[in-house]
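Reviewer comment 2.1 asked that we show a complete input and output for one of the modelled complexes. We chose the thymidine-5'-triphosphate case, as it is the one discussed in the main text.
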Amino acid sequence: MVDYRIILHVDLDAFFASAEERENPELKGKAVIVGADPKNGQGRGVVATCNYLSREYGVRSAMPISRAWKLCPQGVYLRPNFDLYEKASEKIMEILRKYGDKFEQVGIDEAFLDITNKVKDYEEAMKLANKMKRGVFDKEKLTCSVGIAPNKSVAKLASDYKKPYGLTVVNPENVIKFLNPLPVRKLIGVGPKTEVKLKEMGVRTIGDLARYNKETLIKTFGKWGAEMRELANGIDNSEVIEEHEIKSIGREVTFEDDVDNPEIIFTAINELVDEFHEELIGSDIKFRTINIKIRYEDFETHTRAKTLQFYTNDKETIKKTTKELVSPFLHGKKIRLIGVRVSGLKFGEKQKTLKEI
Ligand code: TTP
Ligand code: MG
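Response of the prediction step:
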């Protein structure tokens, strides 16, 4: 038994773009950009991701698609095919989970594994990680980068350190040396707003933050200030937790008396949506699919769903889409039960890490 933990963070390389390249060999050697329709440079919306070749032209995730077009007009622009990504992700997660004692998926293309009891030391951990990377590539023809460290926060930074197909090992003795020069923005939970504030305080690197006066940080950022400083000092005791994945969130209601009045039905729907929408916002969850269920007085039951192009957490979108889906069923026959739920969920930063202030 070792007296430190050995945590692995795995993150797939240019995930959506790599999945597209795998499906279509003609894309090999081309700059591939997945996102909104560029419409010859006039398109609205953003880049979801792009392959490493297009990154050489300066294209990045979340950049306006019109800007990507300017930087890389010769690129191949594709609309996202979420079915493909979700299926690939599921298969890869199944492969990965076998390598750890504890496994925690934190996004469509990343996961933590606790392998403390699987290997003797960091040397063996590195061998296991290499085997895992090859295993994923042999079976799914996609590459991932891996970070190994004594805790989750450092492991995540390590997997990002060398990409694509990288492996970065930060053993306990090297944690501080590894963290010191990294820009503070890289730290889990430090979003653009925190970054700006920290810059104003003269904090640019994780090392600057590690040494910064704790009381001042608490005064400026509250409890998160102290937590952030701990992370900067390489301290993170959070466990790798196997979570039971939530597949959908929603509500349904059975009317006391069966109804055929559309107004009553839509009011009921809006109330259901208001209720679970709070949950979505509170837990920083976005969705892509809206599902409805209708049960008539004779128990005949119908379900319908609509999948959107992008993830959202917009309440009006749920209400509007629900109305669209339900309307064809309102033709005089009395309704006993109505249900609305969202699926195709995406868990945000807040959900998977600490809170951004
Ligand atoms: P990331 O792991 O952040 O990015 P990536 O896998 O494309 O590239 P990298 O090699 O740097 O890890 O995100 C995983 C997927 O999530 C990405 O392929 C597309 C999607 N995504 C978006 O749709 N919008 C975004 O802003 C980001 C960052 C990712
Ligand atoms: Mg990735």
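The radius of gyration is 23 Å. We note this here for comparison with the apo prediction described in Section 3.2.
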